[in-house]
């Protein structure tokens, strides 16, 4: 089977690594090997560690020997999730994929055809495709709904049209031409909120979301900030708060919620401080201050 242009379907898979070479190896091993589809993988390393890059190159070599086309790029710095994926897709562009699949290292491909995913995505040229996900014993649609008062989120229905719904960032797909039209992910966010930012910009140009049920991935979680529990908590507290403040500032529909969010987060910081976690509380306060002050790239909000 071919794409509408008559070519073999070509999936370009973007992976961002941060000290997760073993996870990357597991992801690559799980990808389906199938006839009639071309698969190119670009792994961008954000670890700032020559030893980690060497490990990735060993992994890539073993997967290439098994018939998978894998390319490792040393980013040279940790610019965050969005910058890493933008770099990966820029590298993929040289190979001409029809569809871009963003995949975190901590997912495993459970079932379904990459070729069919490419054809489905190309049949919906204005859509981002969410991937059903097995996590903690249950399967969700891969769609998530943002809850602006608290800044938290919950699972949503397949292909949800809710204005605050988006495809979860651990795995989603879209035509390479749509990625280019949207200018990729917004790099102002170091971590968190990139996907809902993408959703706002997608809907502003008349796009929507679809869910491709024949594919299911398993998501372990935490692989993109693989630093150990204490460091991971600090990263989550800081960027999970900072990025939300930036998101509320950027998009008009969320600005009404900025003050309530600030009040709730300050209350949470106080709670952390009085329950024996003063450092975590201080991290949240610093994140609020940073999110309010950091400049936002012009022209990427509404």
Characterize the structure shown.
With 302 residues, the chain is an alpha/beta fold. Helices cover 42% and strands 22% of the residues. It contains 10 helices and 14 strands. The chain has helices at 21-30, 50-65, 81-93, 114-123, 176-182, 194-204, 229-250, 252-255, 258-274, 278-293; strands spanning 10-17, 38-45, 69-74, 99-103, 107-111, 127-130, 133-135, 138-140, 143-147, 152-155, 165-167, 171-175, 208-211, 216-219. A 7-stranded mixed β-sheet has the order 3-2-1-4-12-6-13, sandwiched between helices. Strands 5-14-7-8 form a 4-stranded mixed β-sheet. Strands 10-9-11 form a 3-stranded antiparallel β-sheet, with helices on one face. Helix 2 links the parallel strand 2 and strand 3 (69-74). The termini are far apart.
Topology, pairings included?
Layout: E1 10-17, H1 21-30, E2 38-45, H2 50-65, E3 69-74, H3 81-93, E4 99-103, E5 107-111, H4 114-123, E6 127-130, E7 133-135, E8 138-140, E9 143-147, E10 152-155, E11 165-167, E12 171-175, H5 176-182, H6 194-204, E13 208-211, E14 216-219, H7 229-250, H8 252-255, H9 258-274, H10 278-293
Parallel strand pairs: 1-2, 1-4, 2-3, 6-13, 7-14
Antiparallel strand pairs: 4-12, 5-14, 6-12, 7-8, 9-10, 9-11
